[in-house]
Every structure is written in C-alpha cells, then in structure tokens.
Amino acid sequence: MSKRSLLTCALVLAAGALAPDAVLFAQEPAAAAAGNTEVLRWSIITAGFALSIAAGLGALGQGKAVSSATEAIARNPGATGDIRGALLLGLVLIESLVIYVLLISLLLFFFNPFVK
Fold it and tell me: pLDDT by residue (tens digit) across 4-29?
C-alpha cells in the first residue's frame, strides 16, 4: 500500500472513532424502546460493515477485471468486441452483488425483522 492510502485509511478510522455518538444513542419513542434496541443497533452496524466490505471488494474486483481486459485487448486487438462483451457482463455481475448487499442493508434499516 502507498503512504497516501495508509494515511487515508488512518484518517477515516480516526474520524469514525472520534465522531460523536449522538446519533447512535438518540432517544427513541417509548413504544419502540421496549426491548429490541440492542438488536436493532447491532443489525445496523452489521449492515454497514457488510456494505463497506462488499463495496470495497467489488471495486477491487472491477479494477482487476478492467486491468485484465485492457491487457488482453493490447495483446490481441482483433478480439476487442468479444473481450468487451465479457468485460461488461463480468462488471454487471460484480456490481449486482454489491447492489444485493445494499438491498439487504436497506431492508435491515427500514423493515427490521427483529423488532416486534
């Protein structure tokens, strides 16, 4: 990793650690605060981690796919159409996995199955 990437990661982690917890510990309405606040809190945290991991690894996969396709086109310019088609299909499938995780995260945020 470059120094710039390490510095960026360190700054993001420091900002997350030093951020005020006012939103996380905000008071809920009396009916919703009956008992499942801890489960709700952890489901939101888990959904956030899942989305960040999926987005990060999806971006790495897309970068590797584009890099490999560019090298393949440079080696064999005659196969550009076939390579481009396979690349677009692969990028769509990678991005769909990230969108599925986003959908599940949004479902956990708004339609939490753990709250009665």
Answer: 777 777 767 666 665 555 455 555 55
Place of tokens 């939103």: 23
Give the model confidence (pLDDT) of 59-111 as tens digits: 999 999 999 999 999 999 999 999 999 999 999 999 998 999 888 888 877 87
Can you give the CATH number for the domain in which 55 is found? 1.20.20.10
CB-CB neighbours of 32 under 10 Å: 12
Domain residues for 105?
36-116
Q: In terms of Cα–Cα distance, which of 48, 98, 47, 94 is closest to 69?
A: 94
Q: In sequence order, what DSSP letters do the residues of 62-110 get, joined into one string? A: HHHHHHHHHHHHHH-GGGHHHHHHHHHHHHHHHHHHHHHHHHHHHHHHH
